[in-house]
Amino acid sequence: MAVLNSKVPEGPVHLKWSNYKENQNLVNPANKRKLDIIVVGTGLIGASAAASFAEMGFKVKAFCYQDSPRRAHSIAAQGGINAAKNYPNDGDSIYRLFYDTVKGGDYRARESNVYRLAEVSNEIIDQAVANGVPFARDYGGYLANRSFGGALVSRTFYARGQTGQQLLLGAYSGLNRQIALGNVTMYNRSEMMDLVIVDGRARGIVTRDMLTGKIESHFAHAVVLGTGGYGNVFFLSTNAMGSNGSAVWKAYKKGAFFADPAFVQIHPTCIPVHGDAQSKLTLMSESLRNDGRIWVPNKLEDAAAIREGKLKPTQIDEKDRDYYLERRYPAFGNLVPRDVASRAAKERCDAGFGVGTGQAVYLDFKASIERLGQHVIEDRYGNLFLMYEKIVDENPYKTPMMIYPAIHYTMGGTWVDYELQSTIPGLFVGGEANFSDHGANRLGASALMQGLADGYFVLPYTIQSYLADQITIARMNPADTPEFKKAEDEVNTYINKLMNVKGTESVDSLHKRLGKIMWEHVGMARNKEGLEKAITLIKELRKEFWEKVRIPGKAESLNVELEKANRVADFLELGELMARDGLLRKESCGGHFREEYQTEEGEALRRDDEFMFVGAWEYTGPDSEPILHKEELKYEAIEVKVRNYKK
Amino acid sequence: MSEKSINIKVKVWRQSDAKDKGRFETYDVSNVSTGSSFLEMMDAMNEDLVNSGKEPVAFDHDCREGICGMCSMYINGRAHGPDTLIPTCQLHMRKFTDGQTITVEPWRSKGFPVIKDLIVDRTAFDKILHAGGFISINTGNAPDANAIPVNKVDSDLAMDAAACIGCGACVATCKNSSALLFVSAKVSHLALLPQGKIEAARRAKAMVAVMDDLGFGSCSNTGACEMECPKGISLSNIARLNREYLVANVVD
Lengths: 647, 252
Ligand SMILES: Cc1cc2nc3c(=O)[nH]c(=O)nc-3n(C[C@H](O)[C@H](O)[C@H](O)COP(=O)(O)OP(=O)(O)OC[C@H]3O[C@@H](n4cnc5c(N)ncnc54)[C@H](O)[C@@H]3O)c2cc1C
Ligand code: SF4
Ligand code: FES
Known about the structure:
By secondary structure, chain A is of the alpha+beta class. Helices cover 37% and strands 14% of the residues of chain A. Chain A is built from 18 helices and 19 strands. In chain A, the strands form 5 sheets. Chain A has a 5-stranded parallel β-sheet. A 5-stranded antiparallel β-sheet of chain A has the order 11-15-14-12-13. Chain A has a 4-stranded antiparallel β-sheet with strand order 16-10-18-19. Chain A starts with 15 loop residues before the first helix and ends in a 15-residue tail after the last strand. Chain B has 252 residues and is α+β, with helices and mostly antiparallel strands. Chain B folds into 2 domains: 5-105, Roll (Ubiquitin-like (UB roll)), CATH 3.10.20; 123-251, Alpha-helical ferredoxin (Fumarate Reductase Iron-sulfur Protein, Chain B, domain 2). In chain B, α2 (123-130) packs antiparallel against α7, α5 (180-191) packs antiparallel against α7 and α7 packs across α9 (236-251). Classes of the chains: A alpha+beta (647), B alpha+beta (252). Chains A and B meet through α3, α5, α6, α12 and α13 of A and α1, α2 and α3 of B. The complex binds flavin-adenine dinucleotide, iron/sulfur cluster and FE2/S2 (inorganic) cluster.
């Protein structure tokens, strides 16, 4: 275990972060101007970190692949953001938010990080409001809250169904202010192609200008990755089309350990797949489970009649409906955590009770509309209902929505210590791209909280501790630094190799095939045989990719197929590591469900005696197997229990 | 939700780079399910192009959930095509009929030069926001979020304005290529909140000045922008912007 030092500060859990801040190293203002920080990604973590670093006086270069930082995938988050404000006076506290998050993550997250997350959560709301985020309010003018899965309190702040958009626009406005002041240089349509290491430390990146194809180097004293999750390894997911794992994957190959890659979240409420042309899956926010009830018919013949179009859901009597979450989990009902709700939907559909194509269940608002009136439901979820209607062509005020689980979020990511620093000194990773706070399952409304916690309130402190030792390092000119030259040459060679395959298959068709393998064998339910098979199949597909991929056009110009090919080539390696990690973890916990390890009632069987650790993988080369390092998890402030959402 | 399969022709703008003059080309796309989205149809068309060794049509898109504002197509003479309150990615093929020819062009405006095919350069919008689309506060200085109550009506109006996705359909639709709906949405969003009110007049003036510099035309109140805005941003925001702008000039 010597390799992994999580650097958790001394003291009881509630004092660790204050102790850290009191004893950390600071950089004096004159020196800050001489220190550069690269931030890759402008989602919640990237935008908030870049703006905060610049305000502190550091020189920042920020990168994103879209045409504007405002379009980062965080923009799509719908439902809300958690904080322990306890404004509704329903018994919430920092400890309770911490407790719910560790329990929700099935005791596979690092306790000290999660406590810090809960501790800074309230400041995020303050900051966002000060930035102009128009959160929902009551008639008195005070902030409103709603509930999310896995919690018995109402602690989620929201801006209609567009919370991510509003939070990102808030962070982006701070970023804009610093761009205007000249403290941040923004590089849009710029893709990170590699990480550059000089004397064992992260000192910059190589990028591809997506408009001209130009390969460029950028130096910095420290590099921060906030590049989001890798859910698109499954091809179909709720992530944006361009979301990718490439930045963290390139870092992995340069020595940053990758933790718990198998921990993937499947979201229970997405619009079901319509057919082969499907390009992505649309989420219907979990907040809908506040007012919607999930059910399927309780008679097989009714389910069959619905699938054949002979019966409508509105014609099924109450007594013939199975509100299976309320039945199985009386205490939490429709608000059980995501992994539990997703598996329950799959179980019903596998048993033949599915509606639509057979891979769907109902989310019904009839009772709430009767109780509260349609205008209240409209006020809460109007934009989501509209989106549903535009996609499915059915009016969800009149007929229940159809939903099915889909890949949504990746808990795994680059291994980081308490300071959010990876195993490469000077490389920091935040937001969805790192592994740290959500264990084996993330609770709803906690990703936005983590992104902004990392960017506004954690990294500005911890990166300073690191940079305090770096003031003697002068800015390097990439043009006369051999490490940069070498990295650029490697990127050029790699791109040429991709362009020169000149095969017959489109990137998308190969990506879809990878997605099928992943969904079938590394998806909602996994087993030894399937995972082993996935490893073999992915290896074969990878070989095929490098023989058959076809990229029309030139590398030296805007080339969408080349961009996609670069990302899919990485997914073809990452997918294998995910299967390996799933194979190693002979237990069921959170989003990782191994069929061999379940209770008689079909609930997940966690095996704390053997698996209470973070599995961090070390890259050893293209043809050799990665090495697993374990960070044992210790819970001091919390009693480890079996998750129970029944009572 | 009875979907069928249709065959269509897509007459699409091809332009290899900013210097190229550009031209229309027409492609057949067959067996399109009316349940697919417009972009899924474009994917299928591109798949055919790649399979025949041709370069696919480049277009911007990312979230495909109607929120990132990246997708931007002028379809059959309308920004984001023949449906209301949606950007291109939320348009579905059930709006089209078998045998139809669909014309697809990029946004056309001096403020948004074409980069390639359907992709345009919208960085002008970012530049306008750099001029003042923010509240000047540093991280860590904020008072408790409930310290300043905000009237629900104002807060809801601020949210209505803040819903702008920065897609540029308003500019593409306007015969003068005015960006006023976009600018007014940001000015209104911040001016309606007590936190943003303090800088409101200064912000309005600075943003309008940059907008004028970047070559966007002036507003002649035809309201076409409001009709095509995927987020229903209201013209009343322009009135609010004008008020703030007046205040700024009176103060000067
Ligand atoms: C539909 C949907 C709804 C959601 N709703 C909620 C919710 O209600 N509450 C909640 O808490 N969470 C929600 N989530 C999860 C949450 O939105 C994400 O986990 C979070 O926004 C991730 O933020 P991030 O800053 O880590 O990364 P992202 O927002 O994904 O940003 C990644 C950034 O990295 C850049 N980038 C990536 N790769 C490269 C590269 N190679 N080179 C250069 N730049 C690169 C991108 O351009 C982008 O700027 C939702 C997610 C989805 C998909
Ligand atoms: S105002 Fe409407 S049309 Fe204009 S950029 Fe915003 S969302 Fe797009
Ligand atoms: S792709 Fe994001 S709004 Fe259309």
